[in-house]
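Late entry, evening session. Most of the bench is empty. Finally got around to the prediction I had been postponing all week. Sequence below, unchanged from the version circulated by S.P.
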Amino acid sequence: MTPLEELYAVSRDIFDRALQACDIPKAFDRHLHFEGRTLVRHPSPRLPSMAQPLDSFKEIYVIALGKAALTMLNALLERLPPKMHLHGVCSAPVIPKKRNRHIRYFEGGHPLPNEDSLAAARAALSLLKGAKKTTFVFFLISGGGSAMLELPRDRKITLDDTIAFHETLVASGATITEINTVRKYFSAVKGGRLALAAPAAEKLSLLLADVPLKDLAAVASSPTLPDFSTMAECAEILERFHLPEKFPPAVREYFKKLQNSEGATPNAKKDQENAAVAFQHAQFDTLLSNHDFVNAARDHAQSLGYKVIIDNTCDDWDYAEAAKYLLARFHELRSEYRRVCLLSSGEVTVNLSKSPGCGGRNQQFVLQCALDLARHEGEALAVLSAGSDGIDGNSPAAGAIADATTIARAKSYNFDPATTLAHFDACTLFTSLGDTIVTGPTGNNLRDLRILIAV
């Protein structure tokens, strides 16, 4: 095996092992278990232990949403005591062949909502409307839920308007936290409104965090956590990215009215009154986060004899700026260590053209890095970037890998890498080279992992 072949195999192995280490059922068992019909949550540095007898509740509701909705739902159902009076709604990337008859399943859209996304939101709100003090609600929330469970607050806004609204935000270049701040003011289910729909019920939200832990309220645009953002913050984001002029007329008019009324709505007072009660009966726990993902990668790389450094400084940076920063750090480390592995987790941003090709932020990042690596001909170094959900943008790949030969090989296939980069068509190039990372949907979502490695 040549040094480059070793780097390809090792970097892919690090990514796969990190993904395997973030097993959702095992995470459930680390955080909670059932003793008979009592739910026991294990203590953590952030949360005390909890023992909740479920026999004191007449019904159990489950609302699952996001890319990991099915995996989380199945893990809970496998552990839930038998003969519980159960009802639920699940909005996931696919509808499973084997279904629980007490759960309504929807195939929510991502990265853009679809008809099932709206239908799932209506079903969830309808179910929660019937919740009482004798109801216990499990909210199973993962990234992607912003699109998979969606409903405009303004009934005049159509599905096509909603899709265009989401598409504009995704392509804007804003960070995920900024995008979700805007979504909260648009949606009838975000910004804590799912919790507000069942104020008296006892609620436990279990999160798979695809955002920095300091921004947990950004997971799926925070359907069950209190929203501490302000209309002023939303307005500043709208203005900075010139969003209203890009929105459909109905959405543009909605935000105009919202800002003129300083965020007030006919239900604002009722929401405030319900919130005082709703969040007194709400608890939260994070099953897995991006930190678990990158730490698992670190542990495996260290076991293979690499000097490992984690640098998440460029989280939410533009992909080109992130590439420039990480490559500079990588080359510095290479001067100190022969076998070195620089890890970076989180997400980078892209500002899409009007007609992008096939790809996503990971492949865009890797192709940008490949232009730099081409200057190091003959050296054994590689860059891999891939998403834990197995999906990168509109492509069938999770990401890609590049080395010092990538650009030369691409040109031999008649690609112009700079043009490909400008057209956001990196997947076409990497597929031709056989250098995409393809996992298929993983049923997980813990953001992205970037691996810069050398021997």
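Two things to note before I forget:
The first strand starts at residue 32 and ends at 35.
The chain has a mean pLDDT of 92.
Will write this up properly tomorrow.
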